[in-house]
Amino acid sequence: MLDDPNDYTNHPDDKEGNWDYDSMPDLQEYFEKDGNFDQFNKDYDKWEEKQYEKEDKLRKG
Prior knowledge:
The chain has 61 residues and is mostly helical. The chain is built from two helices and no strands.
């Protein structure tokens, strides 16, 4: 669970603060566009996977 439910820039798996939150899908944009949260969830999952891959590269690197 996030530390602050209103702050989406502190993912619990980002312990070192290396994730790129600027590239994270913006929930508000999806809501204003058409309310399609299914698409948001898909895009968020893709973003999250990229962050895990980046984290793995940093640890191995």
